[in-house]
């Protein structure tokens, strides 16, 4: 274990004089994990090397840029952006998502978070990264706004409650992701004709994002050819939620496939004892084949913010087409 020595600040100017900001290397990882635990606690997301490696090293868009703040050899701050790519037709848009950040409690309130964040943005600007996006909470949102982040708004959310919850709670079998590996390839190798801005489905993305994700288990409903619905089951205060995070339609998807996916979805809802189903994202702009009841679409999903880097375009009005899978908390 790597422990942190308590810090007693004198004057801010003296403090900053000794501070070093540098790129992280592999030998820093144990200290970074310790810092995340000390600063943030375990909370809902365990701070582990397994999660870190999945998120920041195995990412098919590339390894994450990481800056650390160091004081006399002690790592007291870390700032990480997750590499991402969007595509609009044939245009590739390099992006990052603002994710992990931690400042040791003894060093908080000294401007280290802002310094690390702005320094990392300058590095990304030189690489041609056009924008940074994230889904901050109410506590962190004002700080991001001061550093140039703009509010896009909250994602639309559709909810459907199961009022006839039965006693049948036989859990569905674990999803066999290997059975649809060819469908993954079909989706990832598809043509790029949409004028909407969507995640660039590079080879290996779906496997990384859903099959190997250590945060929670994902499941799917699919005929193996024309559609893929990805969901996860979440326990909440009012009961189980079936949260749809991605839905892909391919050529050949018609009336029969629409009936099939909805019938299979109802079977899962019954087997899992689901109290309500949710579907958030910008796919409501299309003719969505998922039957989600009569409740209106509400703008109460995750709040999205955007920050220009190496672009002068106005980001907010662009034709975004995020799925919840793009924006779930990592």
UniProtKB/TrEMBL annotation:
Tagged with keyword Iron-sulfur: no
MF GO annotations: acyltransferase activity, transferring groups other than amino-acyl groups
UniProt-listed CDD domains: NAT_SF
Keyword terms of this UniProt record: Transferase
Keyword Transferase: yes
InterPro entries the UniProt entry points to: Acyl_CoA_acyltransferase (IPR016181), GNAT_dom (IPR000182)
Domain N-acetyltransferase stretches: 19-170
Pfam families membership: Acetyltransf_9 (PF13527)
Protein's recorded name: N-acetylglutamate synthase-like GNAT family acetyltransferase
């Amino acid at each position: 274990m790597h422990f942190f020595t308590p810090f007693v600040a004198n004057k801010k100017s003296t403090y900053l004089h000794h501070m070093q900001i540098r790129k992280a290397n592999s030998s820093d990882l144990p200290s970074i994990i310790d810092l995340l635990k000390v600063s943030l606690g375990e909370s809902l997301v365990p701070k582990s090397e397994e999660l870190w490696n999945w998120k920041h090293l195995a990412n098919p868009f590339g390894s994450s840029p990481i800056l650390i703040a160091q004081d006399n050899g002690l790592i007291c701050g870390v700032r990480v952006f997750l590499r991402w790519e969007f595509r609009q037709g044939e245009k590739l848009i390099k992006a990052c998502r603002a994710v992990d950040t931690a400042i040791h409690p003894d060093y908080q309130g000294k401007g280290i978070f802002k310094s690390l964040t702005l320094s990392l943005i300058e590095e990304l600007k030189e690489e041609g990264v056009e924008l940074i996006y994230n889904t901050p909470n109410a506590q962190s949102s004002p700080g991001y706004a001061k550093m140039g982040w703009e509010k896009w708004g909250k994602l639309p959310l559709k909810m459907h409650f199961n009022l006839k919850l039965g006693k049948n709670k036989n859990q569905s079998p674990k999803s066999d992701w290997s059975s649809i590996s060819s469908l993954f390839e079909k989706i990832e190798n598809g043509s790029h004709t949409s004028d909407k801005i969507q995640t660039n489905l590079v080879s290996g993305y779906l496997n990384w994002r859903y099959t190997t994700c250590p945060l929670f288990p994902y499941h799917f409903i699919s005929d193996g050819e024309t559609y893929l619905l990805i969901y996860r089951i979440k326990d909440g205060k009012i009961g189980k939620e079936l949260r749809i995070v991605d839905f892909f339609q391919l050529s050949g998807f018609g009336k029969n496939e629409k009936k099939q996916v909805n019938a299979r979805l109802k079977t899962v809802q019954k087997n899992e004892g689901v109290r309500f189903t949710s579907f958030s994202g910008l796919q409501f702009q299309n003719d969505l084949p998922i039957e989600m009841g009569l409740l209106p679409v509400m703008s109460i999903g995750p709040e999205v913010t955007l920050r220009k880097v190496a672009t002068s375009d106005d980001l907010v009005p662009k034709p975004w087409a995020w799925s919840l899978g793009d924006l779930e908390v990592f």
